[in-house]
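Hi D.,

Good news: the full-assembly prediction came through. Inputs first.
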Amino acid sequence: MAIRIVTDSVSDLPPALAQANDITVIPCYVVIGNETYKDGVEITADRFYARLPDLPRLPSTSQPTIADFQETYQRLLDQGHRIVSVHVSAKLSGTLNSATQAKAALGDPSEIEIIDSLAASAQMALVVLDAARIARESSDHSEVARQVRQNLPKHHAFFMVDTLEYLQKGGRIGKAQAFVGGMLKVKPILTVRDGEVHPLERPRSLERAKNRLVELAQTLAPIRQVNISYSTDRVQALGVRAQLAELVSPENLVESRFGPVLGTYVGPNALGVAVTQGTEGMV
Amino acid sequence: MSTSERELTGAELRRAFRLAFDRLEESRDVVNALNVFPVPDGDTGTNMSLTLRAGIERCPDADDAPASDVARELAQGAFFGARGNSGVILSQFLKGFSDALQDRATCNASDLARALDMARVAAYGAVGSPREGTMLTVIRRAAEAAGEVADTADAPDLLATAFGASCIALKNTPEQLPVLKEAGVVDSGGLGVVVIVGGALEALSPSHYAVASTEAQLESIIDSSMASLGDSGQSQEQGFVHSSLDEAWGYCTEFIISGSGLSLDDVRGYCEEMGRSTVVVGDSQNVRVHVHMQDPGAAISYGVSLGSVSSVKIENMDQQNVAWAAGHSAPAPSVGAALTVVAVAAGRGLAELFMESGCGHVIEGGQTMNPSVQQIMQGVERAGAEATIFLPNNKNIVLTAQQVAANDPTVHVVPTSSVPQGVAAMLAYNPVATLEENLAAMESALPEVTTIEITQAVRDTSVDGVAVSLGDYIALLDDNLVLTAESAERALQRAIAMAGVDSGSILTIYRGADADEGAADDVAAALEDETPGLQVDRMYGGQPHYHYLASIE
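Then the structure:
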């Protein structure tokens, strides 16, 4: 009997980290043409990005079903665990709603705490890892949930996209709509604020955008977790990673990848940096 | 102060400024010609004349209007009509002048002296860092001289003294400003001031004016400047590059009449009677005509009656106006927003670029047409947001914009002095950030940009040691003339080389209305080959007169 962390695949949590922390990842769905795939299970990021440029229509995505959640929750409850379930921002997806309904269908057991991470992808993964760390030191899952929620303002993300087209067509552009258009080539840098995509800056080149991602992360120091994420260009991600490596110890430096669901919205050549403010070793 | 002295009535004051305006209007081409920089820009004479005209048009013309009302309305009109730096300085001069006469039904010599002194203070206050050897110096000397005789002279004597001092100050301007000395001319705005003071004096007392102008040798001061400018002093191009400032009405009609014994006055008279926006320049053999006519055929026929007609160009201004108005009839996207940006830009491509980057409204204008205070206010109003960040995008519009901001606390100027600076500021703009965050981000973007402008010289001159002939392609690097070349593309290429680019640079080239599509392809390709990692972005700007604008960031 222990506290178990549940999340969804929008966290883009690397499988090794999920396994090491006993985190259950419920896959979302990505719909390509008439086919529906379980994110990260039935379609890999490599396969997804390879197909993306040639698709006649952009893919779409779908949240896990209530049944998906019910099944996971029931299994963990049967094993005697209590659950802290951390999900993608309700402003970006209906996933949280599925989780809530699944919990209700189970009779609203007090053993389940559901948290809106107000984030997605790299930033959300940091929230999930934070939850896992807190859970290791606590036996009260409600207290874990309280601390996770309290820490939410400490997690930040900045990401650069090659084009805003995917976010716009996918209906997830939020306030970054303001950066759509313009005849000059820019690499928009966006952030997630209050669970929604916000525009931040419009650097004119990839080099400058990368430098700004690094600077934006550095201005938030001290930092206790870093997560570098990319969609297709790992070389660029490694460059950013190298520049931020000195901010945290290696075990707190995560490298992840925008999976198929995220890729539907950020497209190829996207690059992101997420950080958690704080001092390593302290809660 | 002599108590027996006759007091000037409001009507007399109005007549004085009216004649000052008429004289300025007559001297407009000469004042414009003294603009030493050989680039097509909003000229001093035109800007001062339009500013004063806006003041005169607002003046009450009742015979019993008090002096205070005349001065106040004149200043108000000039304020709203102020264009370009010289226009703004003039409007502030008039503001100071009117403040001094606030409660005066009539004014005497000592009132005039006080008014000139307050005008001087206000004029200096209009500019952040006043430079001597400009119209400010001429204003200052006139005011100081008037102050010295305020207790003893009557109004005409006082103005004659001020006028004499202004002429001497004008003559000395080349000693104070090296750029004037190199070109061998006096300051253009300074001449504008001399003409205005002279006109006012002439209205009060033609005999005083005759004596004073002879004594000051004004003619010879002007003649020697014009001689330095050589053949291009009365550049025939000049009037024409400003045609974009014109009223869009009827058909814009341009042609050259060649013959013998042609009278500029006669041709000008005909055009002024028949049309609008008249510009007639030339000599007895060649007269170049620019006029807006409802029937362009009539103007051509008139020309044929005087000699042979060539280089005919006719454009339907109404149509252009309709097309432009149609595109602007939709409500601005920023109406009701908390914050927006309004920018000045000339050319369709640039206007679209600013709109697409998030501007609420773009005011048509720029190098050759400096918008007035009123036009900027209208643009801000049209954008309709609670707060407005304004981008002048031209160094000669910055001061006008600051006038607007000084009177409207919702307007905030980011002093962009070129289009590329404006684009950089615009890309630093984030509509969801606060006003303060945006002002800081946009202002910090300005020093990152090097601006290159390619145009054709509108006169012969020498600037910073570079000899320029009319029609040469010239390159300006951050507003300094650096070179001349045989083609616009060559000028662009050399200016970029001079500015220097490296692998991290971003070069943006905005093609003007006068440059051929694809003409700069080779320049861009060669640069990309030579400098790996250099990013070259090209787009259509459509700006008039400037074949290319470019920025290096």
